[in-house]
Amino acid sequence: MSTKRVLLTMFLGLFAIVGVIAALTTWYTVDESEQAVVITFGKPGETITESGLHFKLPWPVQNVEVLSKETFSLEFGYKERSQGDMDVYPMETKMITGDEFFVLTDLVVQWRITDPKKYLFHSQDPKELLHSATSSAIRSIIGNSKIDAALTDGKSDIESKTRTLLTQLMEKYDVGISVLGVKLQDVELPNEEVRAAFTAVTDAREMKNTKINQADKYKNQRMGEVEGEIAAIKSKAEGQKVARIEQAVGDVAVFQQLYNEYKDNKVITRERLVLETLETVLPQAQIYIMNDDEGSTMKYLPIQPGASKPKEEGSDGQ
Fold first, then answer.
1. Residue 311 to residues 279, 282, 289, 290, 308: CA-CA distances in angstroms?
2. What is the pLDDT of residues 136-154, one digit of tens each?
3. φ, ψ for residue 58 (rounded to 5)?
4. In this predicted model, what pLDDT tens digit does every residue of 62-114 receive, in sequence order?
5. Rounded distance, CA 17 to CA 5, Å?
6. Contact present, 137 and 165 (Cβ < 8 Å)
7. What is the pTM of this model?
């Protein structure tokens, strides 16, 4: 075979290979959960977010990087394996609180790629950068928190502050990643004896709060009863006040009527008042009204409570 024929065969073979490569690299597909960036001679173009079949110039002129639009999870301090086991990294999770206690803190960061071009070209390893930023953020927040807050009711506040700080860091790094959420998995003390002591302290604090709540409940109950008693006493006093005022008004009316009678007939009214007073003061006594006409006979008038007729007798019967 001549040299010319060999070169022609090689050229045809190379042309066929280039044609196959061109045919296979002029199209690509994007799923609904994906996004793509078309790269021309190493420079990123527009981001493709529409799903379906797309076309481009063949490789090596253009190539495509397809990225997911789904939410990813960054496990900090541990890693779950497929069998359900878990690898723990204590040196990564050991931190010191603001009041100088050691704690072990692991968490999960939910994140998403929001700018594919920045994700591909602004950092060599965006995931590692996110991991480092997470470590920096959680250590900063734990370092400004008290041990009580980190182990009890301050976890939600720590999560919120960590997410805010981590978001600020990722915006500063500008690598096309958005932080969606931060969730603390475990915050615990590194030593079993210390954990037991702190648990005892926590139980005592909870007991204290329980007793305070019970005392407040009893206080509120007694205050309600006292307020009810006060209202009852005030109501009774108000009733007595009204009754006495009405009685006084009635007494004044009776006195005024008696006074008018007294003005019209002073003698008779005076005597009647004396008799009524004596009858009131001495209800069981017999009252005699005697009159001596300077004769041998003395007249008297016995008055008894409930008596209907006066009685007159001679003196020799006494």
1. 17, 20, 10, 11, 10
2. 999 999 999 998 888 888 8
3. -70, 160
4. 888 889 999 999 999 888 877 667 788 888 888 989 888 888 899 999 999 99
5. 18
6. yes
7. 0.57
